[in-house]
Write a structure and sequence with these properties.
- Helices cover 45% and strands 15% of the residues.
- The two termini are 38 Å apart.
- The strands form 4 sheets. A 4-stranded mixed sheet has the order 1-4-5-13, sandwiched between helices.
- Strand 4, helix 10 and strand 5 form a beta-alpha-beta unit.
- Helix 9 runs parallel beside helix 10 and helix 12 packs across helix 13.
- By secondary structure, it is of the alpha/beta class.
- Bound molecules: uracil.
- The site of uracil has 7 residues, from helix 9.
């Protein structure tokens, strides 16, 4: 069947629903280069304003999922559970999380992304470990999953090619923040991984794509529903992203902080989320309750098996494991600048969006698609919401290489902190859990 794209765009623009066949046709045609970018862009903008019904979203996600290969991990004799974050600042949770869960006997086929906008990416962080490769041979994927219990890789070329192309177009046409488009993008990729369960960290706040709890709840519910319609249990946890997670924002410094978590020496917020997420992933793999799941997670941390798993993973993926044993050896940029508190008081904001944007200006992320990431630059956040500071005390220490980039980063970062004259309290880290 052939349709007129102009007509389909017009119907969506006017608020009508399209049929599953029409939606599948759009995906197939676009993936086959038979529709021009301008027509798909117009369609995506119409979806952004008009949304999609549940039936439309199911058909659109299904068509994306089958636009390429899907993994077959049936030879792996363990439950396969992945985790995905909708993106944040200082969000390194996946890095300590995956080895903990793998050390508990669950397979984690983790496919992550690169930094997007002001948010950091797990792949960029892992690549700051010398030699670490995030492209592994598809033939060793299942074997490594069985043997070490985890892989940490980028999306393969053949998995959900429709998303790769549509995502790039959305990034360039202002059509990222749409619940149906985000949920179909994330869920089509995750469903293509042949999972037994998925944990979603849906970030809410200034540093997240979803700024309000209401929007994040809608996104989380939509993704839980898509999982249910594909017999894949999904747990979605809404977490605060008004301020960065942990102290480190960057790449190499986030690996250092991840290793600290595996050694039981990480910052409280990162450790709390990591333990909770790992426990939830064990529940998705069949553990009966959160308390027993947490006991297993703590044992994997205390016994050092989670740390050992990270060492083995690094070695298996070509990285030099001595940087996990001695993360202080990772190269950090040579110059430091201290951002000082302008007066005494209580920190009332430590804006994740401003710090994430400043991180990109410093070189920790990309302003353009093919920019190189500098693994050694970044922030060490010293004052978070609820803490007291005195005039001149460090709010953050910036590691930088280039004075011009530092000045550009500071223009944004300086406004990230507000200091109040009355006491403030830290925001709740976990806002809701949806199953
Ligand atoms: N992450 C994705 O994979 N897709 C989106 O649309 C947004 C975040």
């Amino acid at each position: 069947m052939t349709y007129s794209m102009v007509e389909l765009i017009g119907r969506k623009r006017d608020g009508e629903s399209l049929t599953p066949d029409e939606l599948a046709w759009i995906i197939t045609q676009y993936t086959a280069d038979a529709l021009p970018d301008y027509q798909l862009s117009a369609f995506l903008m119409a979806v952004l304003f008009r949304g999609m019904s549940r039936v439309e979203l199911a058909a659109w996600t299904e068509a994306m999922l089958h636009s390429g290969d899907v993994l077959d991990l049936s030879t792996v004799g363990k439950a396969k559970i992945d985790k995905h974050s909708t993106g944040g600042v200082g969000d390194k949770i996946s890095i300590p999380l995956a080895p903990i869960v793998a050390a508990c006997g669950v397979a984690v086929p983790m496919m992550s992304g690169r930094g997007l906008g002001h948010t950091g990416g797990t792949l960029d962080k892992l690549e700051s470990i010398p030699g670490f490769s995030v492209d592994i041979d598809p033939d060793v994927f299942a074997g490594q999953l069985e043997d070490i219990g985890m892989v940490m890789v980028g999306q393969t070329e053949s998995l959900v090619p429709a998303d790769r192309r549509i995502y790039a177009l959305r990034d360039a046409t202002g059509t990222v923040p749409s619940v149906p488009l985000i949920s179909s993008s994330i869920m089509s990729k995750k469903l293509a991984e042949d999972l037994d369960g998925l944990l979603l960290d849906v970030k809410v706040g200034s540093g997240a794509f979803m700024k309000t709890t209401a929007d994040a709840t809608e996104l989380a519910t939509t993704m839980v529903d898509i999982g249910a319609s594909h017999d894949t249990p999904v747990t979605a946890i809404l977490t605060n992203m008004d301020q960065p997670l942990g102290e480190a924002v960057g790449n190499a410094n986030e690996i250092q902080e991840s290793v600290a978590v595996l050694r039981g020496e990480g910052p409280d917020d990162v450790t709390e989320l990591t333990i909770r997420f790992a426990s939830e992933m064990l529940m998705l793999a069949g553990e009966s309750d959160l308390l027993s799941a947490q006991a297993r997670v703590e044992k994997a941390l205390d016994s050092g098996t989670a740390f050992e798993t990270m060492v083995r993973l690094t070695e298996a993926q070509g990285g030099d494991p001595s940087y996990i044993e001695h993360p202080e050896r990772l190269e950090i940029a040579p110059y430091e600048h201290v951002i000082e508190a302008p007066h005494d008081g209580w920190v009332s904001s430590c804006d994740a969006f401003a710090i994430g944007t400043a991180g990109v200006r410093l070189g920790a992320g990309r302003a353009r698609k093919d920019d190189m990431v500098d693994p050694g630059v970044g922030f060490s956040i010293k004052a978070k919401i609820g803490t007291t500071v005195t005039k001149g005390e460090p709010l953050a220490v910036v590691s930088y290489r280039d004075r011009g980039k530092l000045d550009s980063a500071l223009a944004t970062a300086r406004d990230a902190w507000s200091i109040s004259e009355v006491p403030t309290t830290p925001p709740d880290l976990i806002l809701a859990t949806l199953r």
